[in-house]
Amino acid sequence: MAKSARPVTIERPSPADERPAWSRVGIVAAVGFVLGVAWPKLAGVNVGPNVPGDLKPQAEATASAAPTAAPAAPTAAPTAEPAAAPPPNKQTVVVGPGKISRCWDKKNKKVSDCGALLLDPVAVPKLQSLAECPSALGLAGKLTLTIEIDFKDKEVHVVKNRKDKTTIPTSTVTGILQCGKRAFANLPLEEVPNKYRHYTVQYGLTFYPPGKAPEEAAAGSGEGEDAAGSTTSEAEAGGTGVVTWDTALVRKVPKDGTVVARLVRGTKVKIVGRRNEWYKIETGSKTGWVYRGALGL
């Protein structure tokens, strides 16, 4: 007799049975954290790239710096006077007073008394520029230069004084003379009032190498022939004047000088000197320079 087959039973899970077992998930996550993160740190194993050797100290210093640290308190201002500033680190040329050794009139006759010549405003800056001459770099010593001026032919020559007892090497002197000739090639002679045709003028120069120029540098003195006159920064002038502008500015030096006084129209002044288009005046306790247009001149 055949056996009867058992009926097939199909069980359908309920929705509650299909939910994940969160307890098991938590256990798996905890084990993964211990194996992947906590264990290397506890064992001292470095699982990332190392900081390059030359940047490691900087990285450690940055990491150890406190980001919220308060700024250091400012230091108290020093009570002692600051040290004197060192001499300028450049070549310096100090120009001595100009001395006229000879002069000739329009008939080429030598004059014994040459008087004064308003040459310094145009000549001294040229001489000071010799500090930039390649032959003068690092030079220390004294040198007398002679400037020969012919106002009729408008010629200027720069030569070495024959009686100058300089210790500067001849080759260096030659280089400085070449620089001097270039500097005086465009001398504005029209700005120099002159009484005679031809003048020979001497200027004593003192060269100081970079960093050696004293705070009050002594001006070199020209050597050679006896003086028949001298150069000046202003021409002689005299008389009186009256301010014709509403306001005339009185300056310490011509053109760009500090304003030392203001004069109203009608103010009378005493004229004591002149430099090109500017007059040196005196009024009360004030002395300064006024443009000629302000005096109606």
UniProtKB/TrEMBL annotation:
<protein>
    <submittedName>
        <fullName>SH3 domain-containing protein</fullName>
    </submittedName>
</protein>
<dbReference type="InterPro" id="IPR003646">
    <property type="entry name" value="SH3-like_bac-type"/>
</dbReference>
<keyword id="KW-0812">Transmembrane</keyword>
<keyword id="KW-1133">Transmembrane helix</keyword>
<feature type="transmembrane region" description="Helical">
    <location>
        <begin position="21"/>
        <end position="39"/>
    </location>
</feature>
<keyword id="KW-0472">Membrane</keyword>
<feature type="domain" description="SH3b">
    <location>
        <begin position="256"/>
        <end position="294"/>
    </location>
</feature>
<dbReference type="Pfam" id="PF08239">
    <property type="entry name" value="SH3_3"/>
</dbReference>
<feature type="compositionally biased region" description="Low complexity">
    <location>
        <begin position="59"/>
        <end position="83"/>
    </location>
</feature>
<feature type="region of interest" description="Disordered">
    <location>
        <begin position="59"/>
        <end position="92"/>
    </location>
</feature>
<feature type="region of interest" description="Disordered">
    <location>
        <begin position="214"/>
        <end position="237"/>
    </location>
</feature>
